[in-house]
Specification:
Elements: H1 7-20, H2 28-35, H3 39-51, E1 55-57, E2 63-65, H4 67-78, H5 81-90, E3 99-106, E4 109-116, H6 122-126, E5 130-133, H7 138-150, H8 163-179, E6 181-185, E7 190-200, E8 203-215, H9 219-243
Antiparallel strand pairs: 1-2, 3-4, 3-8, 4-5, 6-7, 7-8
Helix pairs in contact: 1-3, 2-3, 5-9, 7-8
Pfam family, one: HTH_IclR
Protein name: Helix-turn-helix domain-containing protein
InterPro entries: HTH_MetabolicPath_Reg, Tscrpt_reg_IclR_N, WH-like_DNA-bd_sf, WH_DNA-bd_sf
């Protein structure tokens, strides 16, 4: 018998995720409206999260992330081999003609763990953390295509992503399987974004060059460079695993 998901646990984590991605403190009513959850339930969930230090209230009685979530974030980053490895490799690279982005997928949101514009130093890329809707991210679309088309996820995404993207997922999946990358075409001759995927210990991340304008005849050099980065991350992952044995 398949275990049924615990909806209260799901709602609590959803509250925490929405709060942690907000740029400002949120009251329980606003949070309830954002999530479409009854305000009484949201208030109860927030009080439970507050009791274990995951959220706190400011002087205006609005909620912010507590020290518990910062501890959890640090622990999860430290214990994720692929995230640690990808950040180490990213910090060793600087590009003056493109954006380097690294991200992962949660539901229909892309979380960028590294995002360095062409005007940024690698260290500034560490502060490039942001979340983006999957409809607006090549990394997100590639990871979603992998999850649905390659790994066979049975989650129903209709109503959560745009119909246009939903219809394109099979072709994105096919492009990844055929070439090892996903390129976003501006027209039949130029791309503005190209992404490759990397998986280690059950977790997938996307690596992308963005904010480019590259003719298809010159695209292979970008593909090759993404592969160099992916291989460096794989090697770093293996080195980290070996060092912890």
């Amino acid at each position: 018998m398949t275990a049924q998901p615990n909806q209260s646990l799901i709602d609590g984590i959803t509250c925490l995720q929405e709060l942690s991605s907000s740029s400002r403190p949120l009251g329980n009513k606003e949070l309830a409206e954002r999530l479409g959850i009854n305000v009484v339930k949201v208030n109860r969930l927030l009080k439970s999260l507050q009791s274990i230090g995951m959220v706190e209230q400011n002087k205006q009685r609005k909620y912010v992330c507590g020290s518990g979530i910062h501890l959890l974030a640090a622990q999860s980053l430290h214990n994720s081999t692929i995230l640690r490895a990808s950040l180490r490799v990213a910090l060793s690279r600087a590009y003056s003609d493109r954006t380097l982005a690294i991200g992962t997928l949660w539901r229909t949101s892309v979380i960028y763990t590294y995002y360095a514009l062409d005007t940024h130093s690698p260290l500034e890329g560490l502060s490039g953390y942001r979340t983006t809707d999957v409809n607006e991210s090549t990394i997100g679309q590639a990871l979603l295509a992998e999850k649905v088309g390659i790994n066979g996820s049975n989650e129903d995404y209709s109503g959560h992503i745009g119909e246009e993207l939903l219809n394109r997922l099979p072709s994105i999946t096919q492009q990844i399987q055929d070439t090892g990358y996903y390129a976003h075409f501006v027209d039949s001759h130029y791309i503005d974004n190209i992404c490759a995927l990397l998986r280690f210990e059950g977790m997938s991340i996307g690596l992308a060059f963005a904010n480019i304008h590259v003719h298809t005849d010159d695209m292979q050099a970008y593909v090759d460079e993404l592969q160099v980065i992916a291989n460096a991350i794989k090697d770093e992952c293996l080195a980290l695993v070996d060092s912890e044995v």
